[in-house]
Structures are given as C-alpha cells and as structure tokens.
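Backbone shape codes:
***
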Amino acid sequence: MPNWKKVVTSGSNAHLNQITASNATLAGDLTANNITVTNDINLGGNDHIRFASDQGFSLASTTSETFQISKGDDDNDIYLAVDGNTTARVTIPKVLELTGTTDATDASGDTGILRVEGGASIAKKVFVGTDLSVGNNITASGNISSSGKGTFDTIDVKSSITGSYPKLTDS
C-alpha cells in the first residue's frame, strides 16, 4: 500500500514529509527544520511579519508603534527598542560597537562611521583618539588643560592666566 493511503487515526502521531496548504491554522506548537514563507506571517490581530523581496524583512503592527528585540527568556533584557509613538526614537541600552575605521572628512554629518546630522548630547566622558576639529566656539564650564603646546590666532583673557610657569610667545 503506498504511503499516501495510510490512515491516521485519532490520538496517533502523523509523520509527513511535506505539507502544502494555501491557508492553515495551527492551534499548538510547530517544530520544523525549514519553513518557506512567500508573504506574511500573521501573529494575531493586526500584527504580522512580512517577507517581501522588494522590501526586505519587516515587523509591523497597526495597533502599536513599538518594537523591541530582547533576550528570549526575559522581555526586560532589551537589546533594541524602536518607539514610533510621540518621539520617534531607537533605544539601544547595550553597547553599540561600530567597528569601521573610516575617518570623517568634514562636519556635514555625511562622512565617517558615526554620522549625526543633528546635535549630540553626551552625558559621560568623551575620548578622542586623534584630531579634534571644532568649527566654532568651544565653551567649557570647568578648566581646560593641555599636556602639549597650543597654537592660537587670538587669546582673549577675561580674567587671569594662572600656572606654574605661564609662558606666552609671539611667533
């Protein structure tokens, strides 16, 4: 008797090599080595995963503008959160490591590995490995110190210059 004519009785396990269906609903768990999806996987309600060759991969919901990637067994251990509600933002609470080595060549926000076209607010220390180029004024609320020589076109001192051996030269 060919395999396709075997009868599966209630309470027994069916072992099938391939299932092709135009519309299927699964009530329990699915374990598979490979699943081919040509359109969307609907997750219930208005949430879905979309696979489109011209649009890539997307996760979408018409009821929520929040998406997050978190540790599989802990939704509080978040790696990436996208909030499109009132202040569209991406939050990365873990380390973001950019390993490219392309130098920035100007202040346009279009060069280098980290590209920021708006302002930047940095709450902690910043270390710069090579040159620091500032296009306008530097404002500091504390001391500015140097372990090397400084070259200036103009120095405007509003108070006083202090130090062990202040030496000013006109070159």
